[in-house]
Design brief:
CATH class of the largest domain: Alpha Beta
Oligomer: single chain
Radius of gyration: 22 Å
Bound molecules: beta-D-glucopyranose
Number of strands: 16
CATH topology of the largest domain: Rossmann fold
CATH architecture of the largest domain: 3-Layer(aba) Sandwich
Length: 395
Amino acid sequence: MTIRRIFGRRAFGFAAVLSAGALALSACAGGGAGSTADEAASGGGAASGEGIKVGVAMPTQTAERWIADGNAVKEGLEKAGYVVDLQYANDDIPTQTQQIDQMITNGAKILVIAAIDGTALSSQLDAAGAANIPVVAYDRLIRDNENVNFYVSFDNYKVGVAQAKALLFGLGLTDKDGKKVADAPKEPQNIELFAGSPDDNNASFFFNGAMDTLKPYIEEGSLVVKSGQTAFDQVATLRWAQDVAQKRMEDILTSTYGGGSEALAGVLSPYDGISRGIITALQGAGYGPTIKEGLPVVTGQDAEIASVKLINDDVQQSTIFKNTRLLAEQAVKTVKAIASGASPETNDTTTYDNGVKVVPSFLLEIQTIYKDNIESEIIGSGYYTADEVAAGVTE
Ligand code: BGC
């Protein structure tokens, strides 16, 4: 397994205590260092959940990662004796708010939430705060409310940087590390940009990381966004939907690339589902069908099995692997620490300002996957088997 945590541990001055059947949290200046965090980090903390109820709210089952995330968090907590109420909300905001209301009513003592819309949960978080129910934001930061106690995620800005670097590498402008190469194409290359859902806090982190990396190349003229669509609002994809992305790509091909007869070299895509929509549009317009045969370079994220197969087949160029099993483990450790009154492990206490406070975070490392490291990183780590990669489905 080469995915490692790169950050050191840093305890956050915070203590959680169980009181009168509810979890009461109290800030504790300067305390909670050392062994408590280490104990939580090692999977210690509450050895047994002793029937403590945890509500786990996940956004959707349409993307495979959230199914895996939900199952892994549930399994990890149940193993430790917690009672888990796991809900998926079909990417529908009212469904998610209702589910969280219900979790609180049903006696959840801790909430783990991957929000659909990071700004839409304020009344649920107010209710959680009033009932001293700690909230762990899972992968997606919940905004504009002080009752978000911890955030577990990946380094989302770095995801965007990595996607842009993969694109630059695929276009022959740099090596894999982002260093310019001597034999880069002399002619300007056309690219198009896609971003994620505008209501997901992560989407702008991904896009900003990518644009900070691509901008110098756009400014020097080696890359051209021919459609002129470069603002986040123009390139965002509501709910990360594959069909929405496919339609936008088709529209751009019609309006800007002669319906597919003009050169398009690459597309920045923030998520594998969006990448597959883009690829369908590109192939439908006559590009490819493989990169070798002229399909534009398309990036991705999540190492979804269907996309790992496409990468293996020289169709999608890359994806960003975020080992969600490790994220689920981190969420479980965080819950255990909270329940036992220890300080959850954090490694970033400056980046994730939710508009009201900076939420103490634990960020995991990411990795770029190309055809040539599927074997070592994806199969070698046991994430998927070779057969699954070949078939494009998990067993
Ligand atoms: C996650 C990504 C995922 C996207 C769409 C984001 O919040 O960080 O991993 O690709 O949602 O599900």
